[in-house]
Design brief:
Bound molecules: zinc ion
Helix content: 25-40%
Distance between the termini: 19 Å
Number of strands: 6
Radius of gyration: 15 Å
Strand content: 15-25%
Shape: globular
CATH topology: Muramoyl-pentapeptide Carboxypeptidase, domain 2
Structural class: alpha+beta
CATH class: Alpha Beta
Largest sheet: 6 strands, mixed
Length: 157
């Protein structure tokens, strides 16, 4: 388990950058805009409420894996979360979740490293090729796959 702590200064600087500096590197490998609502960005709007603690945990995972991690979904505004059929209480809304993959690794590798780095929610989507990671207030492990032609969530715990 990773129990690194960060000073309030680091967290406060990150919060400022997340809101105001889309191009800023929050950590060595992740820029603020990578966590913004993707659909807002496409429409030319910058909306970002990602939590610094999540960004720091993701950097820890990135450091261990040593390969690029691509964020397919960071935070989401309410409107766009609804449009893509996201859960109404999705941790993407509160900036506590990311969906990620690596072009260089199987998702299992990301899953195993994330498991040791203090994420509360971890879900694998083998057919779509990404892993959901969150720091929401609910411990959960799941995988999602098609069984007998039906798209199902399989909860491990
Ligand atoms: Zn949006």
């Amino acid at each position: 388990m990773n129990n690194k702590t960060y000073t309030d200064d680091v967290i406060e600087r990150m919060k400022y950058q997340i809101q105001n500096e889309p191009d800023a590197y929050l950590t060595p490998n992740f820029r603020a805009k990578e966590f913004a609502c993707k659909m807002c960005l496409k429409a030319g709007v910058y909306y970002n409420v990602i939590k610094p603690e999540l960004v720091l945990k993701l950097q820890d995972v990135r450091n261990i894996l040593g390969v690029p991690i691509i964020i397919t979904s960071g935070c989401r505004c309410k409107k766009h979360n609804q449009e893509i059929g996201g859960a109404s209480k999705s941790f993407h809304l509160s900036g506590e979740a990311v969906d990620v993959y690596s072009p260089r690794l199987a998702i299992t590798n990301i899953y195993l490293v994330a498991e040791k780095n203090g994420f509360n929610g971890i879900g694998t989507y083998p057919e779509e090729g990404f892993v959901h990671l969150d720091i929401g207030n609910r411990y959960s492990r799941w995988t999602q796959q098609t069984i007998d032609g039906i798209y199902r969530y399989v909860y491990i715990i």
